[in-house]
Amino acid sequence: xxxxxxxxxxxxxxxxxxxxxxxxxxxxxxxxxxxxxxxxxxxxxxxxxxxxxxxxxxxxxxxxxxxxxxxxxxxxxxxxxxxxxxxxxxxxxxxxxxxxxxxxxxxxxxxxxxxxxxxxxxxxxxxxxxxxxxxxxxxxxxxxxxxxxxxxxxxxxxxxxxxxxxxxxxxxxxxxxxxxxxxxxxxxxxxxxxxxxxxxxxxxxxxxxxxxxxxxxxxxxxxxxxxxxxxxxxxxxxxxxxxxxxxxxxxxxxxxxxxxxxxxxxxxxxxxxxxxxxxxxxxxxxxxxxxxxxxxxxxxxxxxxxxxxxxxxxxxxxxxxxxxxxxxxxxxxxxxxxxxxxxxxxxxxxxxx
Length: 353
Ligand SMILES: [Zn+2]
Ligand SMILES: [Zn+2]
Description:
- This protein is α/β, with parallel strands linked by helices.
- Helices cover about 30% and strands about 25% of the residues.
């Protein structure tokens, strides 16, 4: 009888554990925009574009979308309290929406510093091919990355003192995007679709599907029907917003999405939750003002104004959003001595310059 109770308890505990694992764990790493006002930029607490999506069985697929300025730091902050293992900095798959620098300026940092965490895994990069305003697409960028860091790569890969890293981890693999599925693994599919960010052509948004649920990321775009077609009934629609008046700069206004158009997109697609990111707003405008502008635009569904390091857990029938809370990291007087030998060796390799 005791054994039967124990088995039932274990089955119940496993079911509970399973029920508590979301289908998607999304971390908004960067929700801001580049600006010529450095004080406003710093005070906003919002760095440039990126989000991390963990999904698949037991959240085993870790996918980074965009990697603008300061996103490496956000990856370090988002990786939990373990002082040795930071899974987020070890991310080895990055999808770039378009070739404006605020969407990939930390690619070099993730390639080079991330190598120390990826170790033997190459960085895989999906991004736009060449366009009318730039002959270098993602394949060329990846090749340049390798050569820009040639000295660093050679020294680490050849072995200097006791620092030796496999060259495979410093050999990026690039795939230039087309519309449709671009990545598929363990039941997770990432699909790219064209958006309208003219004259930045091509520019893409991404849809991530898993277990009959989905997360959509707009990239930078003005209102357009192709995004709507690819975003229908998503659980999360994470969409840029531009709340400056058109009189401030019509060229920029015309390739982003105003609050009124943001409301139109949400009304047309009916996500379970709409999330604002890549937030461009005058410094006096609060997050509440932004949400109210969307309501005034005619959308009354669930809305979150994204903040850096906010997490969004998508379950089968609910979505839980949480603002960032820094993990409590216990002070360790001598971290090396407390670790097993194998881990000590690995940590020593990480003190690298
Ligand atoms: Zn852009
Ligand atoms: Zn942008």
